[in-house]
Amino acid sequence: MKVISWIGTISALPRSSTATEATIPLSNEHIQSSSPKLLLSDPCCSLSEIPSSSTASQSQDTSCSTLQSNLSLLTLPSVPSLQKISPESLQVSVSHLCVSSLKPNTCIGCLAVSGDLLYVASGSEINVYSLTNYAHIDAFNGNSSSGSVKSLAFSEGKAFTAHQDSKIRVWQLTPTKRHQHVATLPTVKDRVRRFVLPKNYVRVRRHKKRLWIEHADAVSGLAVRNGLIYSVSWDKCLKVWRASDLRCLESVKAHEDAINAVAVSVDGTVYTAGADRRIRVWGRTSGERRHTLIATLEKHKSAVNALALTSDASVLFSGACDRSILVWEREDSAHHMAVTGALRGHTGAILCLVNISDFLVSGSSDRTVRIWRRGRDSRFCCLTVLEGHERPVKSLVALSDSVSSGSISVCSGSLDGETKVWQVLISNLRSSLSSSDTVRWKF
After folding, report:
1. Domain end: 352, 370, 388, which one?
2. Hydrolase among the record's keywords (predicted)?
3. What is the pTM of this model?
C-alpha cells in the first residue's frame, strides 16, 4: 500500500507545457499494461530529482528516493563487471582537492569549455568564467520564454545553445569576450525557403504540423564535427545543420522515445541515446547525402542519458538510469560495436560522462563524481570518488592541466546550483597522457 501511495503522489505533479511522459523503469516481468506513468519535465531525471512542491514533506522525498533505488535493482544489465583491478595494482597514487566553487543563481543544466573559457548554464542564463582564475567574464541568456539551456557547442567563433523551447540560439563571441545573439535555428531565411511547399511539413501530433527543419520539443543535445552541427531532441529526431550558413540539411526520426544524448566520432559516425533504452549508430557512405542506420545497441534496461567516445572512437561509453556504465568496443571497420562489460559503483542514475585519454569521468544522481582508468588488460578501476555536491551531478567537463605534472581538472555542475572545480593528481599520469590530450573534451 505504501508503494501505491508514493506513485499516486508523483503522478499528481502538474504537467508543464513541455512535459514528457516517462514510465517507471521496471523489468519486463514487473510491467503491466496498466502500469502507472510519471509526468516528468526531463525524461532522464530520476525520481530523486523531482522538485518537491511547497506542501511536500521531506519524508515523501526520502520515500521517492528509496523507491527509485529499489526499482533500479531490478534493471541492472546482465553483463559482466570490468572492475577487476585496484589503484594499488596500477601502482598509482591519487589525490584530489576542490579548488574553486562557482554558484550561479539556480541549478546547473550543463557545462562546456571553449578555449580558456568555462560556460555554466543555469536555467536560461549562461555565465562565462575564466579558466585561469575563475573570474566572472560575461552572462547572457535567451528571452523569457526560451526555457532552460540543455546543451552547448562551439564552432567557428560562435556558441550554440540548445533550449527547452525547441530552439537553438547562436551567439557571436566579440573581441571583448562578450556574447551577442546573431541567429535562432531554424533561421528566418531557412523557413521562408521551405514554408510554401506542403511536402516540407510533417505531422507532430494530431491536427498539428511543423516544418521538418523545426524541432517539436526540447533540444536535449548538441555536437559539432567537421563543420556540421548535430542536434537531438525529445521529439525523437536527429537533425544536421551546416555551421557556415546555419541551414538545416537533414532530419531523421532516430528513436521511439525522447533522445537524451548525441556523440560524433572523428570520421562523422553519429551515436544517439534515448529513453527507449537504445543507442543507435548513424553514418554516411561515400556519395550519400543522408545518414542511415548502421546499428542498434541494446543492453541497457532503462533510459540512456549520456555518451562518451574515446579520441579514436574505438570505445563508446554509455550511462543510464540503471546505474551502470556500459563499455562498447568496435569489433571491425564496419562500425559494429559490442558490449564488453559494465562499470558499476554509482548508486544512482548516470547523468553525464566525459572521456580524456584513458580516463573516464562519470556523474550521477547519487551526488558523486567517479574517475575511472583503464588498465592494460582492458579492465577498469575506480581511482577516486569526488564527493561534496548536495544534489545530482548533471554535467561534467574535464581537461588536462599539465602533462608533465600529471594533473587533470574536473568541473562538475549539480542541481544544487554549484559548480565545483576539482584538481586531481595521479602519480603515473605522465606515461599515459600525450600532447594531444591538452585538448578540452565535452560531452
Report:
1. 370
2. no
3. 0.80
